[in-house]
Specification:
Pentatricopeptide repeat-containing protein, Mito_RNA-Proc/Resp, single chain, DNA-binding, repeat, mainly alpha, TPR-like_helical_dom_sf, PPR_rpt, 73% helix
DNA sequence: CTAGGGTTAG
């Protein structure tokens, strides 16, 4: 039985509408999946990937769909469903393939189910899956994502000897991240020595992790000395990630400084990315310079060649609301919907309330219609009261009725198709 | 076929 069917049978899952999905590239798959907010819908897409056994569906897309389904279930607090879904993979023949099992460990990690991740790793011998750094690194990542940082060094110094492999640069990268998260960049720096002794390559990524941790601790001098040393001794070259750490460090200050550092990047031949520009947008916004912030946003795609991400939209919508520029906020919101990167619920609630308060009822209603499609019912429940107060309650009722009907019709189709 | 830089709430 497919994982999806197993879960449906266990839970009598409701199923929403969807067209048949034929992914071609990973980026197309991602943009489609980003628009899927209903966890059951996400599960259905995942099962269509696995059931079709289509060679044009890359393993990366399947993994992305699995993580997305699990994320959506977590958003609805359906943790026992996550367990049923992921555990059902263990009876499939592919479970003896390490990448397949590793993706289960990763999926447990992204939703903070660290106990299930380590249990899965421990079961590998019984399941007949060989252990290399691949599953090991998946486990270490799961610990970091679940924020159980102190388990990382424990496993790091236990499993490689026990199972006969050597930690690689990724393993060390995660170990360094864990020490940094535990507030100990000093220990992380000691690991660099260990890497050198073992002949493991030290890359710019691990160094930026440490640099960031030093800045976070407030030791700017130490951070800059550390980096200077790495540049002169290890010949380490700054990249966009390095500059983004520096931008993080200064973006609470004057916009001129942020702008200057971005110019410096351009002069150094390092192209600032969306994250870099988000710092500039944030900096302008908190300084009340919304026109400048909007100008950066408007230039982003055309002049800078960067796509705005969900954070870009969130920052702008929030600060535009703060300045009571709700109609501009609404325009930005519409663009975020168009590219499938809408801000989270509370930011949008802020905007709807502002629009209604200023009498822009058409826009407020349009937003509610969109939000009803994009957020889980649990979140929308608290919504009813607010809409009543704003005189928008009927919008909600209409919407619920129409989706209700669609669900019944589609469920019928699914039953027929799966028998 | 993996690690960082963002992802808090306001």
């Amino acid at each position: 039985m497919s994982p999806y069917l197993a879960l449906r049978r266990a839970r009598h899952l409701s199923t929403a509408t969807s067209a048949a999905i034929k992914p071609v590239t990973i980026s197309q798959t991602k943009s489609k999946l980003r628009n899927v907010y209903d966890p059951d819908e996400a599960l259905k897409i995942y099962s269509s990937f696995t059931a079709a056994n289509d060679p044009s569906t890359s393993p990366a897309s399947t993994r992305y769909a699995q993580e997305l389904a699990v994320r959506r279930l977590a958003k609805s607090h359906r943790f026992s469903d996550i367990k049923n879904f992921l555990e059902s993979h263990k009876s499939l023949p592919q479970i003896t393939q390490e990448p397949f099992l590793s993706s289960l460990i990763r999926s447990y990690g992204v939703v903070g189910m660290f106990e299930n991740a380590i249990n899965t790793y421990n079961e590998m011998t019984d399941l007949g899956t060989p252990r290399s750094t691949l599953s090991f690194n998946a486990l270490l990542s799961a610990c970091v994502q679940s924020k159980v940082f102190d388990r990382v060094p424990v496993y790091f110094y236990e499993f490689p000897a026990k199972f006969g492999f050597s930690p690689d640069k990724f393993s060390y990268g995660i170990l360094i991240k864990a020490y940094c998260e535990m507030g100990s960049p000093e220990t992380a720096m000691e690991k660099l020595k260990e890497m050198e002794e073992k002949g493991v390559e030290i890359g710019v990524i691990s160094l930026t992790t440490i640099l960031h941790a030093l800045y976070k601790k407030g030791s700017s001098d130490e951070a800059e000395n550390f980096w200077h040393e790495m540049v002169t001794e290890k010949g380490c070259q700054p990249d966009v990630g390095y500059y983004n750490v520096k931008l993080w460090h200064i973006h609470g200050g004057k916009p001129e400084a942020v702008k200057g550092l971005i110019e410096e990047m351009n002069n150094a031949g390092i192209k600032p990315d969306t994250i870099s520009y988000n710092y500039l947008i944030t900096c302008y916004s908190v300084n009340g310079m919304m026109d400048e912030a909007m100008k950066v946003y408007n230039d982003l795609l055309k002049a800078k060649g960067c796509n705005p991400n969900a954070a870009t939209f969130r920052i702008l919508v929030f600060h535009l609301c703060k300045k009571e520029r709700f109609m501009t906020g609404y325009k930005v919101f519409k663009q975020s919907v168009k590219v499938g990167k809408i801000p989270e619920f509370n930011t949008l609630k802020y905007l709807v309330e502002g629009l209604a308060k200023k009498g822009h009822m058409t826009e407020a209603k349009a937003m509610i219609r969109t939000m009803n499609k994009k957020f889980p019912p649990e979140l929308l429940k608290a919504w009813g009261k607010i809409m009543e107060e704003l005189g928008l309650a009927h919008v909600d009722i209409e919407e619920v009725n129409s989706t209700g009907i669609e669900k019944v019709v589609d469920l019928d189709k699914i039953e027929k198709a799966s028998t």
